[in-house]
Amino acid sequence: MSSGTQADRPVTSQGHYAGSVSRFLAYAVDITASSGVFALALAGISYVVSVVTGNHVSWNKGNIAVAIIFVGWEFVYFAYSWAASGKTFGMAVLGVRVVRADGTAVGPRHAVLRTLAFPLSFLLLGLGFAGILVQREHRALHDLIAGTAVVYAWDARAARLRFLAREAEPTASRAQLAGDERS
Amino acid sequence: MDPLDRLRDAGRRVTDPFEALAQHVAERVLDLVVSALDMNALLDRVDVNALVGRVDVNGLLNRVDVPALLDRADVNELLDRVDVDALLGRVDVNDLVRRVDVDALVEQTDVGAVIARSSGGAASEALDAVRSQVVGLDQFIDRWVQRAVRRKHPAPPGPPALVAGGPVQ
Question: How many angstroms separate the most distant Cα atoms in chain A?
């Protein structure tokens, strides 16, 4: 860890609108995680079917049933995560969360609406995501439709304290050792 | 009997009633004057600051025997009279906490070691570092975008419920 950067950085971002890099990386983590879980589930089902029936099952990418199940899974993954805690796995890793436009917690209605509106932001070459960069409140098209926003939920102050504590601990240990040697 | 004593007796008999009368008249006049006075108006005319400015408070305090004063004071009774809730209600705890140099506290005391042991770990350390870098990138990009769009009014930092001092839920 680069001690200089973290120690000197302002630590008051909690509750502020999250920026584009955090949100993009959170989405990348989510897509990777959800697709991985889906692929594992398909592999598991294939294995069980092959054990039970003796027939090998192969999942074709062009299979419409698989595509529909995948879309359904993604819907459940995002909608349930946002409704339950305001954040998906990727968002939790990056320290951001979804809230209503006024900053209060999102409910199931907003979570479902946001999930349904999310694909719309991909239309027109992803123009809906431009709002994250240029909109005053960093809200994408699906945020504006669902009345939501994404904020930093990461407690940077606590992180700074952890950082300082880690820095302080070896110093304290050395001082204690020196004291023991003297005595 | 001394002729002078007689003279003094006679004089006393004459002057005593006059003295009593004069005192009675003076008290009566004083009552009338005081009742006629508007004390508030009178006090309004008094420049209390100037008055206090003329008082040598240090000299006054030097004369006070503080240990003797404290010996006479029943501190417990005094504290019983204090409404602690009302007192605490007037204290701005947030302002008080803001004045505490938490960084110095963590660095110089065992609190740091306690925090490190309770919340440490390689994963936590790595996550802090990644998030810190990402927030830095976010801010860097945001600054450039703000310059590019030449926004006249600064954008709000966050939703009202979160940046007005409320905790993130």
Answer: 77
